[in-house]
Structures are given as C-alpha cells and as structure tokens.
Fold this protein.
Amino acid sequence: MNHLKKVNDKLGHAIGDEYIKRLAEFIKDSFENEKCFRMGGDEFLILSKKKSSNPEFRNSLAGLNRNIEAYNRARALEIPLSVAIGYADYNSEKERLEDVIRKADEYMYEQKKKMRMEVGNR
C-alpha cells in the first residue's frame, strides 16, 4: 500500500487502519482461491498457483484495482487508497522462495517509482 505513513500522519491512524482493512478485503475478494498474507505494516503477499501471464491472474489484478478505484470514488478523502504491485513467477525446482519474493519486491518498488513520476508530470 502506498502512503500509509502520510495517511496516518495527516488523516489519523483510524483512517490508516481502515485502509489496511479494506485493502485486505479487496485482496481476499480478488484472489479468492489463493493464499493471502499481510507481511506487516503496509505490505501484503499473495501466493498464487497461477503464473503472472495467466488470464485468471490478470483478471484478479484487474478486480483488485477496480475495488480500490470504487472505494476511492465513494469517498472524497484527501489521500486516496493506492497500491504498487510487484509479482514474480516461482519455480520451486530452480529458485528459493525468498529470492522470488525479493524479485517481486524489486518490481513493486519500480512500480512505486513510476507512479511517483506520473504524479509529478501532472
């Protein structure tokens, strides 16, 4: 999740907690048959049986984004709920899970950087 510290500092911890709860619900709803975890703070992990190129996985991502957009449209909060998503495919015969999680994390930070640049160009 993006901007949790900013949300907590500016809008209060109750709103930050609400964002965390809503995002957890949206993830659970969007990735119904997958394992979903809160890693701590503002980070979540989804272990999916589907490859990132799988249309069902892509549909789940799109559903998550639709849920977040609908949530933001229904509320006129100063700081909208937003996420940067990173993912990586895992081959248990060739890789360690920790390395794949690190790859997904790196991709997520690339997405955060792109999002910041897009906001700066508006």
Notes: The chain has one domain: 4-120.
